[in-house]
Design a protein that fits this description.
The protein has helices spanning 7-31, 37-47, 49-69, 137-203, 209-244, 260-271, 278-298, 345-411, 417-452, 454-468, and strands at 75-83, 121-133, 304-315, 327-337. It starts with 6 loop residues before the first helix and ends with a helix. The longest helix has 67 residues, at 137-203. The protein has one domain: Outer membrane efflux proteins (OEP), CATH 1.20.1600. It has ten helices and four strands. The chain has a four-stranded antiparallel beta sheet, with no helix packed on it. It is of the alpha+beta class.
């Protein structure tokens, strides 16, 4: 079959192709929109499997709390049975007997006359048990369930903070390598222009071929450095992509956030934060949990009182001469269980519980002291990084000015190639140190955010935002 294309069909086909390629180009452009640190953090929180497992544990702990509340309520059970007594007759008496005043003197009732043929027995009934006083066991069990739930939810925050710290580290690694790729490109471009200038000067006979070759060697080294930096950038993007759930080709980061203004605003927000480390909250919950466990042990010294009631059915009906129908009756009672002698077992358990409480208190105090030390250390590290960033910025500006003057002097014949190469090397080193200092300032700020609890607050706010959506 042949297809004929008229002018209209060709126009429609061309329009469709233009729209298709335009959409693909737009989608590719959208994928390359530079991402901020906050966007990478949000993606990591949504895709991390460790966080999802911790969230599942938190949901399970919530069900544990609901289960503990049911211990206050009465329990109703049903039990039933079917019994086949076998083929033998049931004889309640071993010998013939007489009943005084009923059987004549000298006579007795034959044993076979009072034997009972076996019959199937059906029985069933409902039983209700309501705790009245259990020595505080139910109250403490509910408290322990709530503390366990608190621990599980704080564990989620701790996992989120760990993930955020990993994201920050991977993010700043990409930023560092990304900036060094640009630096390598700029350095190579400088050498390319220098080679071109020297070749022009050599063509005019104003320099030697040896001088040109020296710069060309540096040019080759710069090209190799650029290739290594590009490979390192790809690997660092792959690592970040594994954390946030994106391909390396989709990752493009905005390096403008390393500016002093951005760091200052984050530091200011950190100073005004009153967040608390999840580890401290967890240790407090653990302390409360051990205290409830001690009260639970002490409750073994107290009596247990409970109400019991029920209704039972049986066939044959024993209430009406074993007739072949159901017969039943209800019952109600109060049960009391009082511990008397356990040979010191409960005393030993109380002493064990006391030691667990003391241990939990020491763990909390030790953690608070260590966190205070960590916060102070990270504050010093960040302050040093800020000072280093300030000095490296100044050194970079001075190296740029030195390179400009040396290049002008070279063109005027006042400097040689060695001088310009040294100036370029000095500039490259100063620029690389400036990049490292900026990244170090950002990394130390992230570490400070984690030690002060700001990352936990960030994770909590992210969770609340997701729940509102």
């Amino acid at each position: 079959m042949r297809y004929r294309f008229n002018g209209r069909s060709i126009l429609l086909l061309g329009t469709a192709l233009v729209l298709t390629f335009g959409w693909c180009a737009e989608a590719q452009t959208q994928e390359q929109v530079p991402m901020s640190l906050e966007q990478c953090r949000d993606l990591a929180l949504e895709h991390n499997k460790q966080i999802q497992m911790a969230q599942a544990d938190a949901v399970a702990s919530d069900y544990l709390v609901q289960s503990a509340k049911t211990k206050y309520l009465p329990r109703v059970d049903f039990a039933g049975a079917w019994i086949n007594p076998g083929d033998r007759d049931i004889r309640p008496f071993a010998i013939d007997f007489n009943i005084p005043g009923v059987t004549p003197p000298g006579l007795s009732i034959p044993l076979d006359f009072i034997s009972v043929a076996p019959r199937e027995i059906y029985t069933g009934g409902f039983t209700l048990r309501q705790p009245i006083f259990m020595g505080g066991k139910i109250v403490e069990a509910n408290k322990m369930a709530r503390y366990t739930s608190d621990l599980a939810h704080e564990k989620v925050k701790m996992k989120e903070a760990d993930v955020l710290a990993n994201v920050d580290e991977a993010f700043w690694r990409v930023i560092s390598v990304q900036e060094k790729v640009r630096l390598a490109q700029t350095y190579k471009s400088l050498l390319d222009h220098l080679v071109q200038d020297l070749e022009n000067v050599y063509a005019e006979g104003m320099t030697t071929r040896n001088e040109v070759l020296k710069v060309q060697v540096k040019q080759n080294e710069a090209e190799l450095t650029l290739v290594k930096a590009q490979n390192g950038l790809q690997l660092s993007k792959m690592l970040l992509g594994q954390i946030i759930g994106l391909e390396a080709e989709q990752i493009e980061l905005d390096s403008a956030i390393i500016s002093e203004e951005q760091l200052s605003s984050r530091l200011l927000a950190l100073e005004s934060s009153n967040a608390e480390r999840a580890e401290i909250v967890m240790l407090r919950s653990k302390l409360a949990l051990t205290e409830s466990a001690r009260k639970m042990v002490k409750s073994q010294f107290l009596p247990n009182v409970f109400l019991t009631a029920g209704y039972n059915w049986v066939e044959p009906n024993i209430y009406k001469g074993s007739q072949s129908n159901l017969g039943g009756d209800w019952m109600i009672g109060i049960g009391v269980q009082v511990p008397i002698l356990t040979w010191g077992d409960r005393i030993h358990q109380v002493h064990m519980a006391d030691q667990e409480v003391a241990k939990a208190e020491l763990e909390l105090q030790d953690a608070q002291e260590m966190i205070t030390l960590q916060v102070q250390q990270n504050r010093f590290k960040h302050a040093e990084a800020l000072k280093k960033m300030e000095l490296t910025k100044l050194s970079k500006e001075q190296a740029e000015e030195n390179l400009r003057i040396t290049k002008n002097n070279l063109l005027e014949g006042m400097n040689n190639v060695r001088d310009i190469l040294e100036a370029q090397t000095m500039w490259e080193k100063a620029a690389a140190e400036d990049i490292d200092a900026r990244v170090e300032a950002a990394v130390t700020l992230s570490e400070l955010e984690k030690t002060t609890g700001a990352l936990y607050q960030y994770a909590t706010e992210h969770t609340q935002t997701q729940e509102e959506k």
